[in-house]
What we know:
It is a multi-pass membrane protein. Belongs to the EamA transporter family. The chain crosses the membrane at residues 20-40, 52-75, 87-106, 112-131, 138-156, 168-185, 192-214, 234-254, 266-286, 292-308. Keywords: Membrane, Transmembrane, Transmembrane helix. There is one protein chain. This protein is an all-alpha fold and 316 residues long. The protein has a domain at 27-134 and 162-261. Helix content is 78%, strand content 2%. It has a two-stranded antiparallel sheet with strand order 1-2. A hairpin with a 2-residue loop joins strand 1 and strand 2 (232-234). Helix 3 (50-73) runs antiparallel to helix 10 (194-214) and helix 11 (237-262) runs antiparallel to helix 12 (264-270). The two termini are 28 Å apart.
Amino acid sequence: MAEALAEVTEAPRVMRSGAVAGWTAALVSAAAFGTSGAFAKPLLASGWSAGAVVSVRLGLAAVVLLIPGLLALRGRWRLLLAHWRPLLAYGVFGGATAQVSFFNAVQYVPVALGLLLEYLGILLVVGWVALRTRRLPSRLTLVGVVVAIAGLVIVLDPGCMGALDPRGLAWGLLAAFGLAVYFVVSAREMTLPALTFVAVGLSIGTVAIVIAGVAGLMPLRATTADVVFVGVTLAWWVPLLELALVAAAAAYALGFVGVQHLGSTVASFVGLTEVLFAVLWAWLLLGELPGLPQLVGGVVLLAGVAAVQRGQALSS
Length: 316
């Protein structure tokens, strides 16, 4: 009887600790992803193609994570075969497609609009979950979706961006699809260790980009010329290291942990905070002060995220 009572009282503590771990991992992941634009921009300006930046970024991240990932596997190679479908989807769509499409999109539309298009993928996540469970989201969740999207629009202010380039629109929507796959696949229950899954997935994504480049489907163009970042001239490999270690290895690994704890719907909306972190990084690194609309939009966005989380908690 005492053991049963202890299990009952322990369960809420485990759930709370899991939620804290999930939110912490998801927020740190969003902050890491938020550095991508600032560090990729000087490389693209110096002559690097989007495909080359992403291939090196994902490839280096995979190398960094591969050794601890294989150690965590402990020789259970059959797990890789058992998870080949989610690994393939994660690498090709969640890694390669999402990143290459976003960097291609921002060559034709402003970065803010590219982010707005990419994060429309969270609507695909909500739709997919509704189809899979055959149950509509709760009213509170739907309100949170609307509020969060409204906050995102306020922060990015797409009304001041002029005419849309159809090429940027197409790439942005493809990035949205890749982002949706990233969250949906990451939320699946699996026995493969997190580091192993991310390392192998990013390796697959890197191979997919290289194959596409060799086949002539996308340019793989790189240069060793110095880049200018925050008014300072740096070697080309400095921003690449940040993109690989922080904006890829840490971001993808922590993002996977966050989705595993929070679920695809909540984690995808927490991922919206990447936009807020991108604004913060632009302020700290580039001296671009956020205006009042961005601050208001940030509050609205966070309120929407909280509503989605609460709605999911009540319906589960």
